[in-house]
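cache lookup: miss for this entity combination. No prior model stored, computing from scratch. Input as submitted by user K.M.:
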Amino acid sequence: EVHLVESGGGLVQPGRSLRLSCAASGFTFDDYAMHWVRQVPGKGLEWVSGISWNSGGIGYADSVKGRFTISRDNAKNSLSLQMNSLRAADTALYYCAKDMWGSPGAVDYWGQGTLVTVSS
Amino acid sequence: EIVMTQSPATLSVSPGERATLSCRASQSVSSNLAWYQQKPGQVPRVLIFGASTRATGIPARFSGSGSGTEFTLTISSLQSEDFAVYYCQQYNNWSPLTFGGGTKVEIK
């Protein structure tokens, strides 16, 4: 069974940094692209970033480009999101998500999310 | 960035009726489009990928069509468990990926 468990969320002041992690299990991690998707409670979904199976392809939403960095460690079955220069607009529930394929496609599994609150 | 526009924002439908949801891309995404369903307090669930392929376990009453910039999700006969918010998403390379704003399907 696929499990995706996010960690690292919390309350942070504007301009500071936070690093999210996702521990994956139940599938061959290095076969699949992975994503971070965020959602303000009660609002819509926003794709944040994604990375291909071998880290050869990476993408970012325009809203986070230059501030966030995605990475993966296939040896440890883990996905990370380094978030710098955080803004109030980055406040959301951040989901780790598994792609159906090794390069960008639809998401077939989601974690339960980790909440990031950016506030002074 | 490719902008995905969903319409209508809210669709009021009676159980047993047909629901038609639309999604428009600001530029062609070929068939690189997925539909998701999200119920309150739950994570999204993929319904359709490749614009028209049902994901594993998705009932046949859900169907997707379209290519390029115009896409449609049809629910042929709404069941009580289908009342939810539906999102489309394009995944045309790492261009970046984008979601539509969602369509809420509510009971009429």
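stored under new cache key. The mean pLDDT of chain A is 97.
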